[in-house]
Write a structure and sequence with these properties.
This protein is mostly helical and 106 residues long. 13% of the residues are buried. It has one domain. It starts with 7 loop residues before the first helix and ends in a 6-residue tail after the last helix. 34% of the residues lie in helices and 4% in strands. A two-stranded antiparallel ribbon has the order 1-2. It is built from five helices and two strands, in the order αααββαα. The longest helix is centred in the C-terminal third of the chain and has 13 residues. The chain is globular, with a radius of gyration of 14 Å. The protein binds iron/sulfur cluster. Iron/sulfur cluster (SF4) binds next to loops.
């Protein structure tokens, strides 16, 4: 089964970067100006990709991932058609978003 590339997951979820990804400086991250290094970012829970004002990923452009070839590992792992139980809640949120057109936290 292939990803439909609807971009909904990129609108709903914050993206945690691994240490390697964070240190690579290849990604725009949250609170860059206030955080010194990965340890501090992880401690504060901000080793995250930057988001737009609406909460969607900074790299979501015209509904598509603009860095698809180098997207973070967690983006590669997640698949909304997955049967993996660890994605159950995320998939539920995607379904709710598609049905209601709003985030569940708003
Ligand atoms: S990096 Fe790409 S795949 Fe990952 S959340 Fe952002 S737009 Fe989506």
């Amino acid at each position: 089964m292939k990803c439909s590339q609807c971009g909904v997951c990129c609108k709903l979820f914050v993206i945690n970067l691994s240490e390697e990804e964070y240190r690579s400086k290849k990604y725009k991250t949250m609170f860059d100006e206030f955080v010194e290094d990965f340890e501090e970012a992880e401690l504060c829970g901000v080793n995250l990709l930057a988001q737009k004002e609406d909460g969607s990923c900074i790299y979501l452009k015209a509904g598509k991932c603009s860095i698809h070839d180098r997207r973070p590992q967690v983006c590669k792992e997640f698949f909304c058609k997955s049967e993996n139980k660890k994605f159950k809640e995320m998939i539920r949120q995607i379904r709710a978003y598609k049905e209601n057109g709003t985030r569940m936290d708003k």
